[in-house]
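User: I'm new to structure prediction. If I give you an amino acid sequence, what do you actually give back? Let's try with this one:
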Amino acid sequence: MNTKRQYRTYTKEFKEEALGLITEQGYSVPQAAEALGVSSNLLYTWKQRAEELESSNVTADERQELLALRKEVKQLRVEKEILKKASAFFAKEMK
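Assistant: Good question. You get back a string of structure tokens that encode the predicted 3D arrangement of the chain. For your 95 residues, that looks like this:
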């Protein structure tokens, strides 16, 4: 029996409110996690990412563009590999 694990997804607003409990209301991470019904590790991860974003000199628009460019580069690499394999196949066929 192959059962896939179901992962919950949380909205940006939920994450911001969860971090607000810690930063603005003085909850500890374990207290906030228990109150929200999420794991402490998840809150630590969200907190770390938020701190990294705050310390970053990249604007939101630049971050969005960077993600789009990374996605495009990944797609182009896949296409390049397909073309390499196709050209090798046709070169072999022509011999």
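You can read the tokens as a compact description of the fold. Here is one thing that stands out. The chain has four helices and no strands.
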